[in-house]
Amino acid sequence: MNDVLPADAALWELFENTVQSVLKSYGYQQIRTPIVEPTSLFARGLGTVTDIVEKEMYSFTDSMNGDELTLRPECTAGVVRSVLEHNLTYDGPKRLWYSGPMFRHERPQRGRYRQFHQVGAEAVGFNGPDIDAELIMLCQRLWDDLGLTDIRLEINSIGDAQERQRHREDLIAYFEQHKDQLDADALRRLNSNPLRILDTKNPAMQDLVNQAPKLLDYLGDESRSHFEGVQQLLRNNSIPFTINPRLVRGMDYYNRTVFEWITDQLGSQGTVCGGGRYDPLVEIFGGKHTPAVGFAMGVERLLELMKASSETVSVSQCDIYLVHQGEAAQTQAFTLGERLRDAGFDVVLHCASAGSLGSFKSQMKRADSSGAPYAVILGEDEIKLGTATIKYLRETDLQKNQQSIELAAVVDHLIDHMTGQDDHNHVHLHAGQIHTHH
Ligand code: ATP
Ligand code: MG
């Protein structure tokens, strides 16, 4: 479980703002569900022979009342519970999204943590291939907006329960014939969840699973035409994809469309987003049949990818660092600080530490390390003259890096200067001090 320190938090903010605006641009509405849910919710929703339920859940007994509880390992179960509890689909289908921490007791490694974060979308009440394609296109738009180019799309259809049952029988027969090549995990799954054997990461079993009967060959007309519909829409919208007949998802509740977004830049933890259709889940939870489809993306993995991509994100604490010396100057600095904030600037006013404000020089050091483009200086001379000195901290030309301005004109002057800078230097994001340099 990781701390996100201020230096990284800015990248998180950039990611979160981008993802929010992309989801909003497709009409998805946010839902926030509790981090703790009854353990039975996940056992019922995810299936008892899944990795998550078998060995990854942080489950505990509430010592006050004996309730069996679990820190959510994923959010689909919680969202569906909430949709049912509040009858959210009473007036039609809903496009929902969520964001937050998830907990899985896994062996920590690069891209795999015990508290990690997901952003996900769930489209509840839609049955056509159109919404499946929309969710995939939404992801593509997000990668584009984040400047991520090295993410590829794999899709598959895992059909419906009957189709999987026929495939499953043939699959078990096939693996029975090659029992000597199965590892312990696979042997354990052979009769409980053989489809998951196809998802093995064991290199020694790759040939075996490649030759195994393919679920795609077992699809009936409806599943097949749904899958073709998804592909057609992706082609129409120029979204490249490959069909991976071995792609299955970790949870039992999926049917028909499944997809993953994968990068080669993160080593073996290369899946940054996974999703699919889960038409049976609402009924499993006791609701009436309600088709649904969704995805979840791993925020830590995407942030690592953002860091690895060539675009640099520079971070500053504020736009303006206010330096002052003397009592009269301090009074003026407080007033000026508020006026600058009224105008929309982010301002750090130098405050005392270790018992004093510190020398002018040490204050300027703070101003520099804040990353602010401007220092505004109020010293005794400035107070006498009714001015402020503006120091342009990013200006390398020494002739141009300092200017004396009438106190009353400081705000307007800085607005003009910043607007001019914005036009040709960088994108100034609403999030605050995050500038993306191209
Ligand atoms: P994996 O095969 O890597 O274990 P998964 O199938 O368990 O992934 P999902 O349950 O589909 O993953 O979760 C969606 C996304 O959440 C994953 O594609 C990944 O990006 C991210 N994710 C899952 N588990 C972790 C984890 N322990 N740490 C960080 N990110 C994770
Ligand atoms: Mg996993």
Outline the structure in words:
This protein has 438 residues and is an alpha+beta fold. The protein folds into two domains: 6-159 and 219-309, BirA Bifunctional Protein, domain 2 (2-Layer Sandwich), CATH 3.30.930; 313-436, 3-Layer(aba) Sandwich (Rossmann fold), CATH 3.40.50. It is 38% helix and 22% strand. It has 15 helices and 19 strands. The chain has helices spanning 6-25, 39-46, 51-56, 76-85, 129-146, 161-177, 184-189, 206-210, 221-236, 281-284, 299-308, 327-342, 360-369, 380-385, 410-424, and strands at residues 29-30, 36-38, 58-61, 68-71, 94-103, 115-124, 152-157, 242-243, 255-262, 271-277, 292-298, 312-315, 320-324, 347-349, 374-378, 387-392, 402-406, 427-428, 434-437. The chain has an eight-stranded mixed beta sheet, with helices on both faces. The protein has a five-stranded mixed beta sheet with strand order 14-13-15-16-17, with helices on both faces. Strands 2-4-3 form a three-stranded antiparallel beta sheet. Strand 9 (255-262) and strand 10 form a beta hairpin. Helix 1 (6-25) packs antiparallel against helix 5 (129-146) and helix 5 (129-146) runs parallel beside helix 9. The longest helix has 20 residues, at 6-25. It is elongated, with a radius of gyration of 28 Å. Magnesium ion (MG) binds at residues 51, 250.
Give the structure's gist in a few sentences.
It is built from 15 helices and 19 strands. The chain is α+β, with helices and mostly antiparallel strands and 438 residues long. The chain has an eight-stranded mixed beta sheet with strand order 1-5-6-11-10-9-7-8, with helices on both faces. Strands 14-13-15-16-17 form a five-stranded mixed beta sheet, with helices on both faces. A three-stranded antiparallel beta sheet has the order 2-4-3.
